[in-house]
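User: For a benchmark we're assembling, each entry needs the component sequences followed by a predicted structure for the full assembly. Here are entry 17's components. Please fill in the structure.
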Amino acid sequence: MIDESTSSYIAGHPILVAVDNVIFGFDAEEEKLKVLLFRRKIEPFAGQWSLVGSFVRPNESAVVAASRILTEFTGLDSLYLEQLHCYTNVDRDPADRVISIAYYSLIQLQKYRKELVEKHHAGWFEINDIPDLVIDHNQMVSDALIRLQNNSRRKPVGFNLLPPKFTLPQLFKLYQEIYQQQIDDRNFRKKILATGLLDKLETKDKTTSKKGAFHYRFNKTKYKELETDGCDILFH
Amino acid sequence: MIDESTSSYIAGHPILVAVDNVIFGFDAEEEKLKVLLFRRKIEPFAGQWSLVGSFVRPNESAVVAASRILTEFTGLDSLYLEQLHCYTNVDRDPADRVISIAYYSLIQLQKYRKELVEKHHAGWFEINDIPDLVIDHNQMVSDALIRLQNNSRRKPVGFNLLPPKFTLPQLFKLYQEIYQQQIDDRNFRKKILATGLLDKLETKDKTTSKKGAFHYRFNKTKYKELETDGCDILFH
DNA sequence: TCAAAAGTGTTGGGATTACACCCATGG
DNA sequence: CCATGGGTGTAATCCCAACACTTTTGA
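Assistant: Structure for entry 17:
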């Protein structure tokens, strides 16, 4: 892998290893895809908006670190946590040589614990209205969205963002937010129902219309199947 | 990002940062996709087969490190170098806490400098006949192939593996190797020519048949366009 | 009764698959 | 002249995109 001289050369200049987590949530009321940000507590850039992150501890892998901070900030275990990219530019952090392994996760926005978010001075921001973030975190958010879009085509990831019971109009709005584009609603229904992913329930959600929209839940068996085998949920 | 106590906690337990590079080449004579491996020089696992890699130096980013070792081992600059995944299991290296950022690159096998490969006790192995590698390097190779397959569908990456002039039968064999499946050759020609990527030349390659196969080269303008906009080169 | 959201089908065009034979040439 | 690999076309099918009106019901 390396020669010894390189190894000892490295020893005096440790590289610090951090993780940052792009935590996505879908606000069903506002029909907006959101990202959790907080005001960074340490220098450099203390007080500026930042993704949630942490150094990787000696006894944990990066995914464990990403999972740990997710729980710290939201009280939730991740339904969906995927490594995005490792950012390694030499000057990305002016204070130390720090590389950051970025993850992205999908959570149910209605379940997170508000007091934890408040305690950390964190807040949810619309994907289209992200403020200036520290270092390369804006890049991380934008890379995460692209990844989420690509994954949504091949796997039914979007369901991780919705409550167990949801309506087709909600799911439709979610896909429009993920893809950042208008979708034909008749074709959407046809395509999504054709996957066999959805079980229609008897009940209706009447909070957004007088007629009410039927509840659906996703079929876990079919869901796991498509997660493995892949599908093609893509709209023009 | 973190609190100070975590920072100082980390300081005494540095995590070492390495890169490993899955270098792909296409052997046009044997019609095989190959990966460059070498016998690891340092403990642990000295003498065992390994991907080519190095620690990341204090003044270089990971991509620069990956590029550096590519040049060290092949004498080539990378046409195509992409970050794959960062492997961070705590016990992956029994000696130290080392994480590895894996890259994969595509090179023209006929151009690499043999003496460098020999000097490093390296060799080319068929993608279907990879020996047991150190640590998680078999996983890296298999992840790299999956990534190469996915990228090949959306972008014309395969051309990075071929010389400037190549024949359709060669390109066809290359895609079969990448996808690890049989492809209908008439449909392949139709689809690949329909992209407008290929310029047919006057000359023929007669090394593999009496009739000879026409040379093609790829159209750089169209190539860059499809690299950006994406395409859909996928076969049943 | 009306406003506001939910729900529903068809058709035409383009793309994809499956499939088998002739061509050119050097030995 | 023949063995070897190179090259070609069509028909049937499937999938996708485009598109507009009816239903329900609470206020």
